[in-house]
């Protein structure tokens, strides 16, 4: 009878395959498995409390941007009102420093009342830029030999017209700038006033940003070292999927907090800004990749690169490539010509933007599919429902908060710069910055605390078995414990290879 039982034991996985039969992967235990409901509540409460504290700090902080405006009638040397439709307008900035980070020149026209008439008109703008050093020496940045007549669109409802982005400097190199603006093909409209606005980042906000980026950077570095030390006791093959991803996300979060951010103030170059866009897009796309892998990977252990990771890399990689290309494309064009705008290259820009939206929709659909499949197959299984509910709860918080911040006209990378350049976008405090960076930092810290192993004694290390907790909780026979196969080998075998107690 025992021989027949052994025979069926050898072929049971081929005779009646069950869900747990393909889960032969062992993994280091996560703190998640030993947490009680009270501990879960404390973790969520701590997350929300610290996040609320960061929002309060942001609300008490300085505004993100500052605006200086000048009136066209005071800039025009001629007393002829018709010159408002032509110029030239000589506009000089107040004293600037590298703490202003970037500078936008925005124009806003007012026409004489046309009885609520709505109209749209294309016209040309010519802008020359001269930088003035601290020694009051002018240096031409964009003169008549290199500047372009850029086409802009004047959209008006009644006497109020939409603002027009005339020029954008991606970094501050001089203490003062002089802009000379001329208009063409707009003489047919009687302008009553032309307003010019200089918009830049608030130096007080820049100082606050440096300090909080440094704080997040130090905490992330310490968390990465602690996580690496906690998992180093085990062989990397025994780490669970979430534990492997935590180290990746902590490293990318370190880059997301931008250790080279002070170079923006010290190095007069657009390169630090491009690196910042690279770090941000890489972290956000990796977070999306993490969600896709977790929801799909919990249902199977056969995670080969070709069948499991490659399709997701192609999907998320297309999103990363389109987002990063959009940011670099506009920055590189603005470096050659500060008057460049995506509106002059609208066909290529719209094509990339459409590709970006398609990639976003494809990633969202894939994520929704994996979430539905994971809950339909694993929700009733002990311990796996914990992993599902935890990652889903915080994923919903992240998505809702991110969408809300975008609706409130604050984003990352290329979106952030476009929002800042809009006159309708005003920031009364630094709360948007604290909300965004605090959210992602706290999220990764919380995951690291929950997914990393807790305090495990040496005796418990010798009894750590499979990734599926329900398997390791089963009452195994003495023969299975004494003569267990490779799948049931203790996780600390690398540390104590001579220990044959199992």
UniProtKB/TrEMBL annotation:
Q: Which residues form the Wntless-like transmembrane domain?
A: 202-453
Entry membrane topology: Multi-pass membrane protein
Keyword set, alphabetical order: Membrane, Transmembrane, Transmembrane helix
GO cellular component annotations of the record: membrane
Its annotated compartments are: Membrane
Q: Where is the TMEM181 GOLD domain?
A: 87-201
Is the Chaperone keyword given for this protein? no
| Source superkingdom | Eukaryota
> Where does the UniProt entry say this protein principally localizes?
membrane
Q: Which GO terms describe its molecular function?
A: toxic substance binding
Q: Name one Pfam family in it.
A: TMEM181_GOLD
Asked whether the UniProt record includes Transmembrane among its keywords, one would answer yes
> Which InterPro entries does the UniProt entry name for this protein?
TMEM181 (IPR040416), TMEM181_GOLD (IPR054077), WLS-like_TM (IPR047843)
The family database entries (PANTHER family) matched by this protein are listed as: TRANSMEMBRANE PROTEIN 181
This protein's name:
Transmembrane protein 181
């Amino acid at each position: 009878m025992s021989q027949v039982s052994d025979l069926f034991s050898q072929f049971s996985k081929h005779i009646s395959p069950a869900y747990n039969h393909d889960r032969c992967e062992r993994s280091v235990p996560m703190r998640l498995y030993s947490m009680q409901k009270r501990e879960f509540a404390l973790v969520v409460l701590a997350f929300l409390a610290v996040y609320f504290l960061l929002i309060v700090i942001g609300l008490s902080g300085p505004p993100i941007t500052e605006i200086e405006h000048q009136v066209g009638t005071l800039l025009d040397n001629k007393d002829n009102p018709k010159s408002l439709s032509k110029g030239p307008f000589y506009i000089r900035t107040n004293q600037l420093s590298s703490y202003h980070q970037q500078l936008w020149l925005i124009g806003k026209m007012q026409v004489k009342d046309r009885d609520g008439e709505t109209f749209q008109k294309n016209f040309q703008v010519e802008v020359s830029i001269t930088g003035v050093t601290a020694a009051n020496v002018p240096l031409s940045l964009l003169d008549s030999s290199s500047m372009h007549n850029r086409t802009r669109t004047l959209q008006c409802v009644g006497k109020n017209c939409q603002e027009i982005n005339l020029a954008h400097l991606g970094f501050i190199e001089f203490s003062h700038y002089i802009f000379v603006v001329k208009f063409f093909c707009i003489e047919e409209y009687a302008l009553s006033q032309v307003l010019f606005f200089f918009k830049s980042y608030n130096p007080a906000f820049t100082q606050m940003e440096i300090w909080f980026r440094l704080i997040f950077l130090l905490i992330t570095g310490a968390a990465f070292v602690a996580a690496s030390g906690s998992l180093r006791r085990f062989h990397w093959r025994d780490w669970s999927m979430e534990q492997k991803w935590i180290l990746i996300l902590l490293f990318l979060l370190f880059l997301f907090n931008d250790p080279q951010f002070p170079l923006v103030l010290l190095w007069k170059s657009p390169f630090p800004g491009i690196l910042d866009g690279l770090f941000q897009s890489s972290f956000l796309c990796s977070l999306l990749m993490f969600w896709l892998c977790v929801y799909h990977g919990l249902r199977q252990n056969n995670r080969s690169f070709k069948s499991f990771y490659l399709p997701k890399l192609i999907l998320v990689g297309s999103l990363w490539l389109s987002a990063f290309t959009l940011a670099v494309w506009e920055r590189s064009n603005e470096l050659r010509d500060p008057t460049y705008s995506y509106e002059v290259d609208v066909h290529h820009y719209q094509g990339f933007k459409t590709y970006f939206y398609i990639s976003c929709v494809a990633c969202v659909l894939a994520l929704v599919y994996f979430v539905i499949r994971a809950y339909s197959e694993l929700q009733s299984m002990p311990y796996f429902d914990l992993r599902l509910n935890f990652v889903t709860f915080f994923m919903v918080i992240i998505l809702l908060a991110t969408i809300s911040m975008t609706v409130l006209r604050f984003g990352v990378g290329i979106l952030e710069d476009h929002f800042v350049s809009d006159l309708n976008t005003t920031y009364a405090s630094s709360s948007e910055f604290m909300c965004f960076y605090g959210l992602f930092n706290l999220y990764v810290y919380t995951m690291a605390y929950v997914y990393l192993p807790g305090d495990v004694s040496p005796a418990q290390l010798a009894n750590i078995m499979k990734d599926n907790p329900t398997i390791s909780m089963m009452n195994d026979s003495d023969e299975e414990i004494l003569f267990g196969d490779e799948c049931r080998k203790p996780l600390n075998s690398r540390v104590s290879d001579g220990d044959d107690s199992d």
